[in-house]
Request: fold
Amino acid sequence: MITTIRRKAAAALVSFGLVAGAFVAQAAPAGADTFTVGAGQSIQAAIDAAPSGSTIKVKGGRFDENLTITKNNIKLVGTPGKTILRPPANPVGPCVQPGQEGGPPSVSGICVLGTINFQTFTVIKPVKGVKITGFTVRNFPAEGIIIFGGQSTTVQNNTLVNNGEYGLFALASSGMAILGNTASGSGEAGIYVGDSPEANAVIQNNTAFDNGFGFFIRSASNGGLTNNDAHDNCIGILFLEAPDSPTNWTATGNQVNHNNKVCEATDEAPPVSGGGIVLLGGHNITLQSNTVNGNVPGGPTAFSGGIVLIAGSSGNSVIANSAHGNVPADLFDVSGAPNTFAGNSCGTSIPGGLC
Reply:
């Protein structure tokens, strides 16, 4: 699981063209650039009909469709707790991945997609200023929400439930604001940011539980995780160097407790459980004023502990955190590299003397 990159989903995007929905949503008066979608209507049809800069308001109801946004400054506004997006019987669009060996297609709920060179996985032209808020996105085989080639994208106050791969998956993107979302039951991670050397991401006030990883930062730099809650995952917060090192992050004021779920071994990775905040590589990352308690393995695991620095993690600062009741230690540094520990409240450390 740790080495999963999910480029397979990105490669498949080129295989499909955009297909409009079956029913055009009711539109506001000309020039207002506001569209309203009610029960029984198509959200995708409204997106297709709306010019850049429009707001699309979606009333409460269950909508069985997958959505793609490729226009700038689209605001997609659901009714919190009432607008529910579920997989359609016949998904369409560029973010639908063909099934393996004749199996059903793999589809994401909402896809924010820039113009991509699929040979190099580079962004030719980002899609800018998209905002998604107020949706419940559940039971999609791939991601709840995917951002590929987004710039200044806001994902706020959404609920992402039981999606097969990730709750929110952002790659090759910058200027993300991920605010106040809840992600649970994801096969891989609740909230993921990867392949983004200039992520400039603000990840704040989110809750992630019952996922493989709560928050997963891989090969992405420049950002902050603030006041998030990660509990009952296999690992609460994971920074991973694969292939590039995540750098220039701050993680402050997060609650990272009881991440004791078991992720069993796969062909790609060993089993993991009981990890609070884990750095598997990472440079110039500041972990400050976090609460990290009761992270105890629930089964076999390659590593565990409260705040864990492993293999190649260097130049990081672990400052003024409170970590207690973690196994095998509250602070666990086996990186073999220089890192700074100061002012932490904890009971145990490996090596000794870090508390």
